[in-house]
């Protein structure tokens, strides 16, 4: 009965299916078939070559992450993370890949950088894949997701710690009402700034992706202009 409900739910929303399948398999303790995403041998292999995402997650989900503060999360080539109020912005087009059960990597399609959180809770765009690029993806009410660092969190210390496992606090990806990221340790699961709606690409986004892949000049002009901005500031 429960299984039927879970299955029905996971088919309602196509964007949930990729993430839902391994979770479901884990929940039901289905043994992992050889060569599948859940196969730990494969994970080790792929990790050594830095190709974790493609191998583990299959095809990435192309999405924009729309924060409840009305900003689209952007991953910039200069290493910066922030939000855009624009509906169409190249650096908000993302590839989300399951790298483990319930764990995702989020890559900017145009910047080729990964969303990452460092040990001080700052978000940055990493040009290589590492453990700071792994986030726990959770589904919440109204279709919003949260993304918490897999690596860093607030571990309670002192007297209260023993009997309150719940005092441990996750550090969430978060874009505040000014379009700027909040430090992980200041975030809460319930804040608007930590809630993201994964949106599928619209026609305009698809057109930008097509141009980016087929038109070298277009690609260079986007990446060059963002480099120039960075140089001017320093
Ligand atoms: C986001 O960062 C980019 C790149 O550094 C910058 O050009 C843009 O103005 C920033 N936007 C906001 C809303 O802060
Ligand atoms: C972008 O920069 C590269 C190297 O700096 C240069 O060769 C190329 O012509 C530039 N492209 C555009 C469209 O500005």
TrEMBL record:
GO terms for molecular function: growth factor activity. It comes from the Eukaryota. Belongs to the heparin-binding growth factors family. The gene is FGF3. Pfam families: FGF. This is Fibroblast growth factor. GO terms for biological process: anatomical structure morphogenesis; cell differentiation; fibroblast growth factor receptor signaling pathway; positive regulation of cell division; positive regulation of cell population proliferation; regulation of developmental process; regulation of multicellular organismal process. Residues 1-17 form the signal peptide. PANTHER family: FIBROBLAST GROWTH FACTOR. InterPro entries: Fibroblast_GF_fam, IL1/FGF. Keywords: Developmental protein, Differentiation, Glycoprotein, Growth factor, Mitogen, Signal. The keyword Flavoprotein does not apply.
């Amino acid at each position: 009965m429960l299984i039927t409900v879970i299955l029905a739910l996971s088919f309602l929303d196509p964007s949930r299916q990729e993430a839902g399948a391994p979770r479901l398999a884990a929940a039901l303790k289905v043994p992992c078939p050889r060569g599948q995403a859940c196969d730990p041998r494969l994970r080790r292999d792929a990790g050594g070559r830095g190709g974790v995402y493609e191998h583990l997650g299959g095809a990435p989900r192309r999405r924009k992450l729309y924060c409840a503060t009305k900003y689209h999360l952007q991953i910039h080539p200069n290493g910066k993370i922030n939000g855009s109020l624009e509906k169409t912005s190249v650096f908000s087009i993302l590839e989300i890949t399951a790298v483990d059960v319930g764990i995702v990597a989020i890559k900017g399609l145009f910047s080729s950088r990964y969303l990452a959180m460092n040990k001080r809770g700052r978000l940055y765009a990493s040009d290589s894949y590492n453990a700071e690029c792994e986030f726990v993806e959770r589904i919440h009410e109204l279709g919003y997701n949260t993304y918490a660092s897999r690596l860093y969190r607030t571990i309670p210390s002192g007297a209260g710690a023993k009997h309150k496992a719940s005092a441990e606090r996750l550090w969430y990806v978060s874009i505040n009402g000014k379009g700027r990221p909040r430090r992980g340790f200041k975030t809460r699961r319930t804040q608007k700034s930590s809630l993201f709606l994964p949106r599928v690409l619209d026609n305009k986004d698809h057109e930008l992706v097509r141009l980016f892949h087929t038109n070298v000049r277009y690609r260079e002009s986007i990446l060059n202009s963002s480099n120039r901005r960075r140089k001017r500031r320093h």
